[in-house]
């Protein structure tokens, strides 16, 4: 899996020169983030962290990840329409996890009232690592699928050019020409534009539902600008704005400040800290509305870790996707071992297995956004504490994926240049649009490679652990 530039990695003067070029190229290309100190102003910005060099990715696994994306789109969409499955799967979780329970309550409430929404838009990102099996042959294993606020489709559309220039500076023009073009932001915008068009009100706007703290605004602007280019008006609002100024008319059309909203694109709302009582009220208002929510609350629930674990049970995929034998096979091939900690004999055995050998597993609560999973000794301690209480059902257990590390330089503002042993995570962006029961769009629209130093078990780019990368297919 080695990349063809091991030779330059230790040529420190060349690396230092290339790093200066890389940072300026990133700034010029718009690989940007606001600063920690001024997260809501663009007066001072910096480059988003990225690797100096692209990372090697086995081309067969890269193709496999693209090939299964439409299947995953179809699967997520099917789960979101299967009340029985969601109810049954999340029954144990919502007894102990307040956040999932609250989302679930909105879900049932909206269904009881009857859905006003008839056009559905899904934007997801399925994430993988390359597990080096017993014989060293790497295998594609899914980490999770993100069904809400999957980010970095914008910034990653600009990293290939930066890495191409770095390779040229390092005397590798041939390799530079092999980097694949990649533009998920255009694909995401196409999906949003399609949903907007099917909503059928040319004067209505697209609303990005954004966080209070907006460090990653440039990533979102990439998608926004693609919509403006199509003459679709975009507004950016927070839950608080919706609470104060949002309303529904008698047909449950959504209005913000008197402007009709066709599509609500959530880049917020996936962690408990996003919500106070007013924000929950705003969420309910949005879900009740006729506007196309990306995602609707059912699709958000379809992305929970508990659902992921239940999908790995024999027979579940077949039940959810009847008649799609090949899709089921492709999906299942990407699954790592996943285990339920529900109360009962099965869960008891799983807990005992993990406590006996914690380094083989990852313990995951129903949370998104990185930094929540437990590993090793900490996993053992937590599991020992909760093993006999229903609290354990707020977690799932997963086999730990062990990719083979490679050396690279992680470039971050105000940090010294230093070589690190790294592992990468590949994400594929999927977009689909459904009108009633008809899927009118189902596509894989691009990829994201994130790389981190091996000493960090958890955490993404926003959490300050991983950095943006570009795959170099080998
Ligand atoms: P989150 O919703 O917080 O992003 P993830 O399931 O993606 O949760 O886990 C966060 C990070 O933890 C991943 O990006 C990956 O680096 C690491 N991780 C998660 N699951 C595994 C696993 N099974 N094996 C190895 N590392 C994992
Ligand atoms: Mg993740």
UniProtKB/TrEMBL annotation:
Domain of life per record: Eukaryota
Listed Pfam families: GSH_synth_ATP, GSH_synthase
Positions with a binding annotation for substrate: 125, 148-151, 214-216, 220, 267-270, 450, 461-462
Known cofactor(s): Mg(2+)
Gene Ontology MF term list: ATP binding; glutathione binding; glutathione synthase activity; metal ion binding
Residues that, per the record, bind ATP: 144, 305, 364-373, 375, 398-401, 425, 452, 458
Enzyme Commission identifier(s): 6.3.2.3
Pathway connected to this protein: Sulfur metabolism; glutathione biosynthesis; glutathione from L-cysteine and L-glutamate: step 2/2
GO cellular component, one term: cytosol
InterPro entries (UniProt xref): Glutathione_synthase (IPR005615), Glutathione_synthase_a-hlx (IPR014042), Glutathione_synthase_C_euk (IPR014709), Glutathione_synthase_N_euk (IPR014049), GSH-S_sub-bd_sf (IPR037013), GSH_synth_subst-bd (IPR004887), PreATP-grasp_dom_sf (IPR016185)
Keyword NAD: no
This protein's UniProt keywords: ATP-binding, Glutathione biosynthesis, Ligase, Magnesium, Metal-binding, Nucleotide-binding
Residue ranges constituting the Glutathione synthase substrate-binding domain according to the UniProt record: 204-302
Cofactor note as given: Binds 1 Mg(2+) ion per subunit.
Enzyme class: ligase
Binding site for Mg(2+): 144, 146, 368
Catalysed transformations (reactions): gamma-L-glutamyl-L-cysteine + glycine + ATP = glutathione + ADP + phosphate + H(+); gamma-L-glutamyl-(2S)-2-aminobutanoate + glycine + ATP = ophthalmate + ADP + phosphate + H(+)
NCBIfam families found in the cross-reference section: glut_syn_euk
Family to which this protein belongs: Belongs to the eukaryotic GSH synthase family.
Function according to Swiss-Prot or TrEMBL: Catalyzes the production of glutathione from gamma-glutamylcysteine and glycine in an ATP-dependent manner. Glutathione (gamma-glutamylcysteinylglycine, GSH) is the most abundant intracellular thiol in living aerobic cells and is required for numerous processes including the protection of cells against oxidative damage, amino acid transport, the detoxification of foreign compounds, the maintenance of protein sulfhydryl groups in a reduced state and acts as a cofactor for a number of enzymes. Participates in ophthalmate biosynthesis in hepatocytes.
Record text on subunit structure and interactions: Homodimer.
Protein name: Glutathione synthetase
Organism of provenance: Eolophus roseicapilla (Galah cockatoo)
Gene: Gss
């Amino acid at each position: 899996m080695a990349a063809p530039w091991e030779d330059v990695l230790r040529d420190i003067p060349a690396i230092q020169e290339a790093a200066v070029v890389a940072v300026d190229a990133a700034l010029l290309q718009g690989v940007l983030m606001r600063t920690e100190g001024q997260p809501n102003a663009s007066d001072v910005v910096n480059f988003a962290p990225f690797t100096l060099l692209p990372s090697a990715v086995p081309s067969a696994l890269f193709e496999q990840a693209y090939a299964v994306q439409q299947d995953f789109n179809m699967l997520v969409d099917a789960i979101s329409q299967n009340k029985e499955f969601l109810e049954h799967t999340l029954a144990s979780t919502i007894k102990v996890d307040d956040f999932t329970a609250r989302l679930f309550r909105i879900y049932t409430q909206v269904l009881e009232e009857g859905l006003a929404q008839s056009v559905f838009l899904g934007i997801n990102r399925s994430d993988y690592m390359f597990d080096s099996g017993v014989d060293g042959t790497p295998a594609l294993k899914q980490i999770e699928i993100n069904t809400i606020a999957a980010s970095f489709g914008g910034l990653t559309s600009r990293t290939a050019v930066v890495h191409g220039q770095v390779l040229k500076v390092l005397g590798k023009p041939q390799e530079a020409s092999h980097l694949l073009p990649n533009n998920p932001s255009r694909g995401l915008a196409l999906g949003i534009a399609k949903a907007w068009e099917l909503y059928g009100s040319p004067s209505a706007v697209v609303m990005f539902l954004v966080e209070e703290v907006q460090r990653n605004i440039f990533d979102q602007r990439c998608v926004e600008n693609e919509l403006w280019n199509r003459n679709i008006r975009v507004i950016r609002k927070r839950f608080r704005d919706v609470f104060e100024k949002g309303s529904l008319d008698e047909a449950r059309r959504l209005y913000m400040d008197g402007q009709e909203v066709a599509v609500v694109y959530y880049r917020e709302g996936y962690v408990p800290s996003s919500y106070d009582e007013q924000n929950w009220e705003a969420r309910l208002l949005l879900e009740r509305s006729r506007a196309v929510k990306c995602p609707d609350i059912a699709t958000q629930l379809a992305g929970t870790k508990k659902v992921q674990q239940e999908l790995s049970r024999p027979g579940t995929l077949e039940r959810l996707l009847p008649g799609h034998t090949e899709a089921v096979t492709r999906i299942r091939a990407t699954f790592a071992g996943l285990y339920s900690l529900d109360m009962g004999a099965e869960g008891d055995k799983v807990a005992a297995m993990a406590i006996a050998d914690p380094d083989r597993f990852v313990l995951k609560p129903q949370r998104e956004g990185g930094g929540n999973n437990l590993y090793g000794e900490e996993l053992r301690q937590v599991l020992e504490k909760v093993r006999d209480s229903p609290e354990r059902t707020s977690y799932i257990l997963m086999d730990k994926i062990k990719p083979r590390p490679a050396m690279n330089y992680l470039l971050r503002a105000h940090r010294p240049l230093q070589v690190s042993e790294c592992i990468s995570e590949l994400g594929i962006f999927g977009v689909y649009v459904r009108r009633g029961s008809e899927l009118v769009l189902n596509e894989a629209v691009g990829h994201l490679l994130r790389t981190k130093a091996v000493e960090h078990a958890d955490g993404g780019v926003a959490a300050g652990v991983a950095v943006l990368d570009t795959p170099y297919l080998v």
